Amino acid sequence: MDILGPLYIFILAAFVGYNVIHKVPPLLHTPLMSATNAISAISVVGAIIVAGMEHSGGDSPTLAIIMAVVAVAAATTNVVGGFLITDRMLKMFKKDKPAATEEGKK
After folding, report:
1. Do the Cβ atoms of 36 and 30 come closer than 8 Å?
2. φ and ψ of 3, to 5 deg
3. How is 73-97 classified by DSSP, letter by letter?
4. pLDDT, position 97
5. Shortest CA distance to 65 belongs to which of 78, 79, 76, 49?
6. Which residue in 5, 16, 26, 30 has the most C-beta neighbors within 10 A?
């Protein structure tokens, strides 16, 4: 099994991703995080498809299913956490309601 090719691609993707994210201005972090959440959601769908596939033949179908389940859990955690953080960041930009309107309702 040739592992050098996929390992090389993983290291290259990690390096490029790190450099791209650190060059983004802070003003664009929220939209960028929303886009990343959408990409992670696609990963969830792909991992669910792989986990649900019937693995007839092959070296280790059990290992493939375990890895797919782990991928589903990791991507789902990333999506949920990302949306929670994005929601929290967006709340920072909302204006607070004046106290006078609250007292007028009573």
Report:
1. no
2. -100, -15
3. HHHHHHHHHHHHHHHHHHHHTSPPP
4. 67
5. 49
6. 30
